[in-house]
UniProtKB/TrEMBL annotation, chain A:
Protein name, per record: Biotin transport system permease protein
Sequence intervals crossing the membrane: 68-85
Top-level taxon in the UniProt lineage: Bacteria
Intracellular or extracellular location(s): Membrane
Any coiled-coil regions, as ranges: none
Membrane topology, from the record: Multi-pass membrane protein
Record keywords, A-Z: Cell membrane, Membrane, Transmembrane, Transmembrane helix
Matches recorded under PANTHER family: SLL0384 PROTEIN
From TrEMBL, chain B:
Assigned protein family: Belongs to the BioY family.
Molecular function GO labels: biotin transmembrane transporter activity
Intracellular or extracellular location(s): Cell membrane
UniProt entry keywords in alphabetical sequence: Cell membrane, Membrane, Transmembrane, Transmembrane helix, Transport
Transferase keyword on record: no
Membrane topology field: Multi-pass membrane protein
Source organism superkingdom: Bacteria
GO CC terms in record: plasma membrane
Transmembrane segments: 30-50, 57-83, 89-108, 120-143, 163-183
Record-given protein name: Biotin transporter
Entry keyword Transport: yes
From TrEMBL, chain C:
Record-annotated ABC transporter domain positions: 3-226
EC category: hydrolase
Organism (species): Rhizobium wenxiniae
Enzyme Commission number(s): 3.6.3.-
Protein name stated in the entry: Biotin transport system ATP-binding protein
Length: 201, 187, 228
């Protein structure tokens, strides 16, 4: 699983992840409060222009934004039809600007930096006894580690259906996938404990 | 939290991610392929219960937020949290809490198999469809200024598929409970 | 190693898995053999405090595995049957470093320790590979590195050659013989166990034989020869 982060050395890359996240929330709040289509269009343009800092091709920018383009256009059209063109344009530019600014933060921040921010943000929760801040990074690592294993297991189960001349059906695929995966939890947990990884010192 | 609970939650998060990456599953009786990721959210509730199920869904959302393409169609990054459909993502959390809580409340080992399946279905339907759509539609209505009734109309087409997913979640949840019971005992 | 089982008994869900036993382990390389379900894994897991005795106590280099669990655990490393389940972070280098994290060492020291252990097992080139891309033999070496990086004095291995082809099995056998750490190996691989200093035969939750490998293995074979 490749992250959507893009290596680089721009000013945005060097900005601490916490600052970027805080700025993003302020910007998104402002975009919601301002209902001026010209201003919002300008904001979307700034967000798009920011992508030149990433030094990627226009085609690559489009590839990254494509999943959002369709839904943004559909919602904008829907709004335009029911609430008029002005509202439709406001929705279009606002949603586009939001997606573009968010995409900038994602592209310029590494997974490790995000995990550090989350771990620090979780410290107050740790003091309240709700969770252990370090568990956050461990859990995220575990998920990334085991997704490929689960995909291989899924293929094995599907092939076992074909080998027996059975048509794969959702329930008969999902049940063995869940059971075999969760059965390994005991050994993984034992390995974590045996290595003293969650020891509090 | 016990290490085993942490691992179970993380593994289920990985299952939800994997379900977004496998090709859409064709159902025999309707000709539309369904993406299995929101099914994964219902499954997390029926299999793991409210607490661990919620942790696994939160993990998937955190992974998406930090830029990993873990949502169906390879979506990820902060932009998915700034989209018109974000309400459905946030709704996952409330959906899994509801599904998990209702599963723990309604289903017990002493019930007949059919009763267990029906109860799992009620839990998955209430959490994974009703609560989910309330979140998704409210958010869509608010963020776009469309108003509730229009936002509801725009979402209507997806409801039958999600009801079907609740059926699958119920059948699978009951089968997993027989094969490898994990649901916390009723308090 | 200096491991003592004192009047140890293990019961699980109403069943006695280990009948009361006294045992001292202090050799360099000890093997444990026996049928599936005989209790050998339970016995080994007690050394790392993963299984707690229902009665009696287990001490490892003087540390009680229940009362002083952290210290007792620090004495031994455990390699599980399926090495796939013990690499828990995506990149091997990250995974190995994880064991050192709870020690709060400076970053450079962690990096140096990780590189040293990768070198020791000749798998420096695998450091940035993803765990699910590694072969069975590579995974077994990776698991060894991830456990030995914290410098335990004793290494417990559960079926280390179970899923390996002959080439990787021989690699693991050579590795076991060259490890400076004391080793406890649970295995069905009688050729592997034959090369150790002492072998225990576990049968139905009791130690049925204990001594020189050739004799104990002979006894194990005799017990099950020609029987179904």
């Amino acid at each position: 699983m490749r992250s959507l982060h893009i290596d680089g050395d721009s000013a945005l890359h060097r900005l601490p992840a916490g600052v970027k996240l805080a700025t993003l929330s302020v910007i998104s709040l402002a975009l919601f409060m301002i209902g001026n289509s010209a201003f919002l269009a300008g904001a979307a343009l700034v967000g798009l222009a920011g992508h030149t800092l990433l030094r990627i091709s226009a085609a690559e920018i489009w590839r990254r934004m494509r999943p959002f383009a369709l839904i943004v256009v559909v919602v904008a059209l829907f709004t335009a039809v029911f609430n008029g063109t002005t509202e439709g344009l406001i929705a279009l530019f606002r949603l586009a600007a939001l997606a573009l600014f968010a995409s900038l933060v994602t592209a310029t921040t590494t997974t490790g930096d995000f995990i550090d921010v989350i771990t620090r943000a979780a410290m107050p929760l740790e003091r309240l006894g709700i969770l252990k801040a370090r568990d956050v990074g461990l859990s995220i690592g575990l998920v990334i580690r085991f997704v490929p294993e689960i995909l291989s297991r899924y293929e094995v189960i599907r092939d076992a259906h074909y080998a027996r001349g059975l048509k794969p059906r959702p329930v008969s695929l999902i049940v063995p996938l869940i059971i075999t995966t969760l059965r390994s939890a005991d050994e993984i947990a034992a390995a974590i404990d045996a290595r003293g990884i969650r020891r509090q010192k | 939290m016990a290490t085993r609970d942490l691992v179970l939650s993380a593994l289920f998060a990985a299952i939800i991610v994997a379900l977004g990456l496998v090709p859409p599953i064709m159902l025999g009786f309707i000709p539309v392929p369904i993406t299995a990721q929101s099914l994964g959210v219902m499954l997390a509730g029926v299999v793991l219960g409210a607490r661990r199920g919620t942790i696994s869904v939160l993990l998937v959302l955190v992974l998406a937020a930090i830029g990993l393409p873990v949502l169906s169609g390879g979506r990820g990054g902060l932009a998915v949290f700034m989209a018109p459909t974000t309400g459905y993502l946030i709704g996952w959390v409330f959906a899994v809490i509801t599904t998990g809580y209702l599963s723990q409340l309604l289903v017990s080992h002493s019930q007949a198999g059919f009763v267990q399946t029906v109860n799992f279905f009620v839990a998955a339907l209430f959490g994974g469809v009703i609560v989910l759509y309330v979140c998704g539609i409210s958010y869509l209505a608010l963020i776009t200024g469309l108003g509730f009734s229009k936002a509801f109309m725009g979402s209507l087409a997806f409801i039958p598929g999600d009801v079907l997913k609740a059926v699958i979640a119920a059948l699978a949840g009951r089968a997993v409970m027989v094969g490898y019971p994990l649901l916390p005992k009723r308090a | 190693m200096d491991i003592h089982f004192e009047k140890v008994e293990v019961r699980f869900e109403g069943r006695t898995v280990i009948h009361p036993l006294d045992l001292a382990l202090n050799g360099r390389r000890v093997g444990i053999i026996g049928l599936n379900g005989s209790g050998k894994t339970t016995l080994a897991r007690m050394i790392n405090g993963l299984v707690k005795p229902s009665a009696g106590r287990v001490t490892v280099n003087g540390f009680d595995t229940v009362e002083r669990q952290d210290e007792a655990r620090g004495q031994s490393g455990f390699i599980f049957q399926n090495p796939q389940n013990q690499i828990i972070l995506p990149l091997l280098r990250e995974d190995i470093a994880l064991g050192l994290k709870s020690r709060k060492l400076p970053k450079q020291e962690v990096t140096a320790a990780v590189e040293a252990i990768l070198d020791r097992f000749g798998i420096g080139h695998l450091g940035d590979r993803r765990a699910h891309e590694l072969s069975g033999g590579e995974l077994q070496l990776a698991a060894l590195a991830s456990v030995l990086v914290t410098e335990p004095k004793i290494l417990v291995m559960d079926e280390p050659t179970n899923q390996l082809d002959l080439k990787n099995r021989n690699l693991v056998e050579r590795t076991i013989h060259t490890l400076p750490e004391d080793v406890i190996v649970i295995s069905h691989d009688l050729d592997l166990v034959a090369g150790l200093d002492r072998v225990l035969l576990v049968h139905e939750g009791r130690i049925a034989a204990d001594g020189e490998p050739g004799e104990v293995i002979g006894q194990y074979r005799a017990m099950h020869e020609g029987k179904d």
